[in-house]
Structures are given as C-alpha cells and as structure tokens.
C-alpha cells in the first residue's frame, strides 16, 4: 500500500496523491471497488490506517475536514428539529450495562471492559460504551418526572467501541466508531414514539439528500432488530460493488428499557406510567457512503456542501502576462471567499496536468483556469469535477456562476446516484433469481412474513433480508418462494457490508 507522509513545507498540509517517495500514487479503477476504496482512503488523505491497534484509524486533517462538514449538516438538522445536544460519559458500570437481558445478548461479545484502576482491580468493571442506552437511561429515570417533561429529545456525537471480529475497514467496520451520532428520545405513548421514529427516518433521509446519497428504507425483520427494541427501520445504500451498507437505523424501544431502568412519568390524571422511547444513530459510514457512491477513477467527487475545497483557481502563467493573470486570479479568489465559498489558488510550478490530477483526486468541485487569452476575453475556463467538460464563463458575475454550478452539481450528483441505485435493484420471484442478482445489486422477493421462511430464504440465497420497504412500491407481490403461500409483502435482499 502506498504510504503518504509527504509534508508540504509551505502549508504544513499533507499533499494528496503523493506517496513517500513523492511519486504520484496510482488509484486503481473504481470497477475494482474494494481496492479503490482502500486506496482512496489512503491517497485521498481520509484516514491513516497505520495506527497500531486493529480497527482503530486516524483521521487525516483533510478527511476530518469532510467529517466536520458532514457532522455540521447532521447537527443542524437535529438542532432544527427540537433535539438538544448533550454529552454522556464513555464508561458504563457493569451493574447498569447488565440490566437489560436482550441488550446484553446483542452486545456482550463486542464489549471492551476496563477492569483496573492502575494496578487495583475495580469493584465494578466499566464498559467502554458500545452504544449509550445503558449510560443515558439511568439518568433519564432521574430527569423525567411528569408529562410536562415530554417529549425529551437529546443526541450526542461520540466515539463508541465494539470488539469487531470480522475484517475491519476504515469508516465501515471499526473497533472505535469515532463519530457516532446517537439520539435518544422519551415520549408519553407508544404512538408518540412511533411518530418520532417516522420523523427520524425523514430527518435521516434529509441528511442523506444533502450528501446526495440515495437510500433504501426498510423495516428490518424481527431477528435483525435492535436488541431490546420493538422494531427497527434502517437506511441502506447500495455500494458500487452491489453490496449494501447500512448507514442509519431508527429504533422504537417501546417500554422495554423504561421497565428495566424504571423510567416513569406522571400523566395528566396524576398516575405513574412507563415512558416510551426511541433511539437512532448515524456513524462515519455516512462518509464511506458519500465517498463510495460519488467517487470515480480519478478520485474523490464530493458534494459541494462537504468538499473542503469547493473551488480551485489555477492561473495559466507566461512570463509577460504573469502579473495581469495573477491579479485576475486573486480577485476571483477574494470575491469567492467574500461570498462564503471555500477556495484555494494553486499557483505552484507543477505542470498543469499534475495540478488537475491533484485537485481532481481531492474532489475539488470546480476548477477555474485563467490564462492570458482568457483574460483578453474577460473570461475563465470552468471545469466541474463530476462532468469534466470545459466551459467558458465571463469574469463578470463569476460568483453567481460558481454558485449556480455548485447548486446544480449537488442536484446532478443526487440524480446520477439515484439512477445508478435504481438500476441496481431487480425484482425476483425465485431464490435462484435472487442468487444471480445479489452479487451485483439488491433483489426484491415476495415473502409471507414468517421467520422460518425468512431464514430459509437467507440460507438458500446466502444473502441477507434487509427488510420490507417502508413505502408502497410498485413491485408486484407474488408467492413466497419458501412456502408457496401468497405473500402480502416484498423484501429487499442483498449481500451486506
Ligand atoms: Zn413463506
């Protein structure tokens, strides 16, 4: 694997696209998705995989710049929908963690334990949170008193730890999830909590719309729901290799945790009742999704909302005209900066080809080139990262042009991704058809709804039932291939990450 430590002395930033010897590192074609992904994480300066603990990775500043903007979007959407941000401790006492039986069963194989303080064994072991229900709910018991306290809608963005035994991968399968946005809400009735689940699914869909990532939304089958919950709605996206990536889950917890942690409220009639709860989460898989869905053979293609560099200005310099061209470029850069765009100028002595390569790899959305001949015509050359075609724009009104191009780019990225995703879903009627389909995308199949048939279908197809689409689809229903009974629902089946 190409390593990547070249320091740019001037900026103190690592140079994307270079390996240790300063040579350009080569990105494999995206058709070889697994290699492409590993490579883009490295030479695209997203994460450094060389940290000496399995499943723990280090954010490069460039990758963290993307992460910061993605989480700004997430925080905005949460804050503007009545959620408050909070922060709970990382450590959970074993006594609280072990209270909810199903929850323990779901997580006990994955928990890291703190067993000692210095050399002294702890009386009560402390779990590194794998998720925070058991940290938060004992406090909710203290905080919730009456119906006037409800709904309570809190979220936090934290790291969580899971001892994954499967092959770990940056952003996708980690032992330290660095960026877990988890929300935990409390409601009076089951119906209120259900409405919150629906709202959360809508918020998550909005978040992914802003990242131009299309999603499949489905209700997970019972055997795959959150341990200790009533039901789970999940958001998945289809990766370029046809496997799906779960990029968000929303859980209706009913009164299960309320009964375990004794969270009660006084209703309007003065009676004590158990609360109903939901929880929902998004992790840095959101970043894996946006990188994978949009990227291409040249590198990152980033939606303008999250690209660290939205516009790069490249002066085309010749001896006699250097000053005039630099003046024009400086003006464009400062006008765009003043308008709030993230702009960089690349006036280095690198060859034009090397500059294009570098900024394309980094997913800069728009390249503006200005040379002496452009200046004579008072114009600039614009190249959008996703289209790669040259167009000319007048230097007057360049800010408006850039604004319009970036908006259009976000829309075009979504449309292209959605078309690609829909083309990767095929309706199937038999398990043989499913087997042929799920190597390259998602299959739909009629299912009677019984667990035994579901298990049989998963076994025969070697795939996973994602669940029942939560919106009516036009895909025709038919007979459950496992039992032959008429099925009143269809399910998505895929190979999952
Ligand atoms: Zn059946």
From TrEMBL:
- Aminoacyl-transfer RNA synthetases class-II family profile domain location is 55-303
What's a BP term from Gene Ontology annotated to this protein?
prolyl-tRNA aminoacylation
Catalysed reaction, written as an equation: tRNA(Pro) + L-proline + ATP = L-prolyl-tRNA(Pro) + AMP + diphosphate
Q: Where is the composition biased (Basic and acidic residues)?
A: 1-23
Give the enzyme's EC designation: 6.1.1.15
Q: Where is this region: Disordered?
A: 1-27
The cross-references to Pfam families, in alphabetical order and at most eight, read: HGTP_anticodon, ProRS-C_1, tRNA-synt_2b
Q: Where does it reside?
A: Cytoplasm
Q: Tell me, what is one Gene Ontology molecular-function annotation carried by this entry?
A: proline-tRNA ligase activity
Q: What keywords is this UniProt entry annotated with? A: Aminoacyl-tRNA synthetase, ATP-binding, Cytoplasm, Ligase, Nucleotide-binding, Protein biosynthesis
Q: Which GO terms describe its cellular component?
A: aminoacyl-tRNA synthetase multienzyme complex; cytoplasm
* Cited InterPro entries: aa-tRNA-synt_IIb, aa-tRNA-synth_II, aa-tRNA-synth_II/BPL/LPL, Anticodon-bd, Anticodon-bd_dom_sf, Pro-tRNA-ligase_IIa, Pro-tRNA-ligase_IIa_arc-type, Pro-tRNA_ligase_II_C
Q: Which family does the record claim for this protein?
A: Belongs to the class-II aminoacyl-tRNA synthetase family. ProS type 3 subfamily.
The written remark on domains in the entry is: Consists of three domains: the N-terminal catalytic domain, the anticodon-binding domain and the C-terminal extension.
Q: Which PANTHER family match?
A: BIFUNCTIONAL GLUTAMATE_PROLINE--TRNA LIGASE, PROLYL-TRNA SYNTHETASE
Describe, as the record does, how this protein assembles with itself and its partners. Homodimer.
This chain's function reads: Catalyzes the attachment of proline to tRNA(Pro) in a two-step reaction: proline is first activated by ATP to form Pro-AMP and then transferred to the acceptor end of tRNA(Pro).
Name of the protein in its database record: Proline--tRNA ligase
Naturally occurring in which organism (per UniProt): Methanimicrococcus stummii
